[in-house]
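Subject: Sanity check before I submit

Could someone independently write out the structure tokens for this chain? I want to compare against mine line by line before I put it in a report. The sequence has 309 residues.
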Amino acid sequence: MGGFAPAKAECEWFVVTQKISMPMFVNGTNSLFATGTNPVSIATADLNGDGHLDLLTTNYISDNVSVLFGNGHGGFTPQTPVPVTNGPREVKVGDLDGDGDIDFLATNYSGNNVTIARNNGNGTFATTSVAVGNVPRGLAVGDLNGDGRLDFVSANYIANTVSVMLNSPNGTFSNATGSPIAVGTRPVAVAVADFNGDHRLDIAVTNNSNNTVSILLNNPNGTFTNGGTPATGAGPRGIAAGDLDGDGDTDLVVDNFSANSLSILLNNGAGVFTASAGGPLTTGNNPYAVTLGRPRRRWRYRYRDQQLR
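---
Independent answer below. Compare away.
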């Protein structure tokens, strides 16, 4: 607990993307690559199996997702965009059907659904969609019921709910018991991690109008219990989970759009979060999203019950 002092063995830094451009890298030669209209969210993965990272962007106005194949040297070639429904916002990647290829999901803000895009193995995609709550924005992917298949959670901005959607053996998604689940007012972003050490993925969602985070703890029967609503700064939007103080518990960092700050919420190990004595941390204007990582080293992200390298 106490003040925020990242341990060297754990997550060491976070990056805030802002509406006001704050360049962190020097542009390389021919480093601008075409996407659709009004790109909002981005994800990276090897989509065509060549060992190089590729890019996906959700394009809010053109209602599609751009696919750009990487060459391994910082160059990207646009492919045929993947059509989705109205107003795509958040994109996440993962192997949804267990075939070894990376698929993606995208929330559709005006379509009230999530696009499920299954990879044909070569970086082209076959799409379906599944209905969620009204005006979905944030999205997180993880195995929420322990069956070895990736499920997802959407934050439904106008409905003031999250939809917990479970992946079935036939590849369809359906609401978990009790889903959609009521949270605070105007939920924006969502993260999943094991917050209380029971080896089940829990949920955290930012509530933009309440200046809180809703914590939903995963029960053995597949339902979720309200684990509290720790306070943030004004206008929380992005959220990321990781061990920020090196005590083995998964903490949260939240960017506060209206307060121009980051809230550091430290976990006591039971899924109860307290604001760090060293926070909030000042950012530039209107921070919009946050991620955790490690500079100049192989990326590592640690949960209590799993480690991804």
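---
OP: Matches mine. For the report I'm noting this point. The CA atoms of residues 11 and 244 lie 6 Å apart.
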